[in-house]
């Protein structure tokens, strides 16, 4: 899990899942500088929902839920509520720290149990892209340009060739987001992880001018929701994915069913790297009209879109406004997963949602057609939460 925390007494950017471990480590520090320890600024409107990544065994073999798979989103919300009492100032998708006429924006995350599929498929050269994406996509929601990235790679016994593949993916992700891999840490902890397995964490810092922060405060009813396509499941919901896979009777080497005649192995489809939206989103922001941005990660549409709204506003989502990718249709059918659970767990084919002025909608949609496309998926309404029509 990850959360951006800070208090006056302890002015650092903290990760609840990133406590320092007393173990043999190899420090990878850049001569350009050393990692910053930065306090986030409180964003009084919103409390960041923890993105909890864990695995477990639930009950029941039909109508699977994320909780059945071992992930309790409601428990995560309760933990955030309690933390907020201890450390007021938990922010949105990233933590903001004032620096002159700008804010530094920081975020931290991992890739969850998608790592389990990396171990099973042997696909290690793109998991680093996922790692970078989860943090830089969070901080770009504030309009911040990523500056640098730090990684943490932990394993029981260091396999240099495997680690090189993982780090190559991290470098690729940094190049895609136009930031620097400034340094990191490699921890070799015998007996702590299973043979051949490892864990990853990442940390990104970006910058945005104070008067250019995207914070959602001007969002109003009638504004339009534009969705940017995802590449698939991205890096959330894999505890449920793995439960569905086990129940389905298929293997990672089997073909993804009903993929419009395009053959692809299930393992490859599930391991498709998370799209890094940084360059596309910053370009859209630079032309005006963007009021708020939501990164669709754990919690799906249902929990993430309302995070950027002022009180009293909600979202209406037009469920037929984009084609749901085959991988989500398979997850729903093979797991018997209800629509509400799908929408609160997965991105459903939309990885980033922009809240824009209605008069900017046509221009933004037209300009996005030259890249990966975009969809008008809904609108802001008076009310609370998310309504699906």
TrEMBL record:
<dbReference type="InterPro" id="IPR036921">
    <property type="entry name" value="PurM-like_N_sf"/>
</dbReference>
<dbReference type="InterPro" id="IPR016188">
    <property type="entry name" value="PurM-like_N"/>
</dbReference>
<comment type="pathway">
    <text>Purine metabolism; IMP biosynthesis via de novo pathway; 5-amino-1-(5-phospho-D-ribosyl)imidazole from N(2)-formyl-N(1)-(5-phospho-D-ribosyl)glycinamide: step 2/2.</text>
</comment>
<comment type="similarity">
    <text>Belongs to the AIR synthase family.</text>
</comment>
<keyword id="KW-0067">ATP-binding</keyword>
<dbReference type="InterPro" id="IPR010918">
    <property type="entry name" value="PurM-like_C_dom"/>
</dbReference>
<dbReference type="GO" id="GO:0006189">
    <property type="term" value="P:'de novo' IMP biosynthetic process"/>
</dbReference>
<dbReference type="GO" id="GO:0004637">
    <property type="term" value="F:phosphoribosylamine-glycine ligase activity"/>
</dbReference>
<keyword id="KW-0436">Ligase</keyword>
<feature type="domain" description="PurM-like C-terminal">
    <location>
        <begin position="220"/>
        <end position="386"/>
    </location>
</feature>
<dbReference type="GO" id="GO:0005829">
    <property type="term" value="C:cytosol"/>
</dbReference>
<dbReference type="GO" id="GO:0004641">
    <property type="term" value="F:phosphoribosylformylglycinamidine cyclo-ligase activity"/>
</dbReference>
<dbReference type="InterPro" id="IPR004733">
    <property type="entry name" value="PurM_cligase"/>
</dbReference>
<dbReference type="GO" id="GO:0005524">
    <property type="term" value="F:ATP binding"/>
</dbReference>
<feature type="region of interest" description="Disordered">
    <location>
        <begin position="16"/>
        <end position="35"/>
    </location>
</feature>
<protein>
    <recommendedName>
        <fullName>phosphoribosylformylglycinamidine cyclo-ligase</fullName>
        <ecNumber>6.3.3.1</ecNumber>
    </recommendedName>
</protein>
<feature type="domain" description="PurM-like N-terminal">
    <location>
        <begin position="100"/>
        <end position="208"/>
    </location>
</feature>
<dbReference type="InterPro" id="IPR036676">
    <property type="entry name" value="PurM-like_C_sf"/>
</dbReference>
<keyword id="KW-0547">Nucleotide-binding</keyword>
<dbReference type="GO" id="GO:0006164">
    <property type="term" value="P:purine nucleotide biosynthetic process"/>
</dbReference>
<dbReference type="GO" id="GO:0046084">
    <property type="term" value="P:adenine biosynthetic process"/>
</dbReference>
<dbReference type="Pfam" id="PF02769">
    <property type="entry name" value="AIRS_C"/>
</dbReference>
<dbReference type="Pfam" id="PF00586">
    <property type="entry name" value="AIRS"/>
</dbReference>
């Amino acid at each position: 899990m990850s959360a951006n925390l800070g208090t006056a007494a302890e002015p650092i950017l903290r990760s609840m899942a990133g406590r320092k471990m007393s173990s043999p480590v190899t420090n990878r520090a850049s001569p350009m500088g050393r990692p910053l320890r930065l306090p986030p600024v409180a964003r009084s409107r919103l409390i960041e929902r923890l993105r909890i990544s864990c695995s477990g065994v639930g009950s029941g073999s039909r109508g699977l839920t994320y909780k059945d798979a071992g992930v309790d989103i409601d428990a995560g919300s309760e933990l955030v509520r309690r933390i907020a009492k201890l450390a007021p100032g938990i922010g949105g998708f990233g933590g903001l720290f004032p620096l002159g006429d700008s804010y530094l924006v920081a975020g931290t995350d991992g890739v969850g149990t998608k790592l389990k599929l990396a171990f099973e498929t042997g696909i290690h050269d793109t998991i680093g892209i996922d790692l970078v994406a989860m943090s830089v996509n969070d901080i770009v929601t504030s309009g911040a340009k990523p500056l640098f990235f730090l990684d943490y790679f932990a394993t029981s016994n260091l396999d240099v060739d495997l680690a090189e593949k993982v780090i190559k993916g991290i470098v690729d992700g940094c190049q895609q987001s136009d930031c620097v891999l400034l340094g990191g840490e490699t921890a070799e902890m015998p007996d702590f992880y299973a043979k051949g397995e490892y864990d990853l964490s990442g940390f990104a810092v970006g910058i945005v001018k104070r008067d250019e922060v995207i914070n959602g405060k001007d969002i109003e009813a009638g504004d339009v929701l534009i969705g940017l396509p995802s590449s698939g499941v991205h890096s959330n919901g894999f505890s449920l994915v793995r439960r569905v896979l086990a129940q389905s009777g298929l293997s990672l080497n089997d073909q993804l069913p009903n993929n419009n005649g395009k053959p692809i192995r299930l393992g490859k489809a599930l391991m498709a790297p998370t799209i890094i939206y940084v360059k596309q989103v910053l370009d859209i922001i630079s032309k005006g009209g963007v009021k708020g941005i939501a990164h669709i990660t754990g919690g799906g549409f249902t929990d993430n879109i309302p995070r950027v709204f002022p009180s009293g506003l909600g979202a209406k989502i037009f469920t037929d406004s984009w084609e749901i990718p085959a991988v989500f249709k398979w997850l729903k059918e093979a797991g018997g997963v209800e629509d509400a659970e799908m929408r609160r767990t997965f991105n459903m084919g939309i990885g980033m949602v922009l809240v824009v002025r209605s008069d900017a909608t046509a221009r933004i949609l037209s300009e996005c057609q030259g890249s990966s496309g975009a969809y008008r998926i809904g609108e802001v309404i008076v009310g609370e939460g998310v309504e699906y029509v």
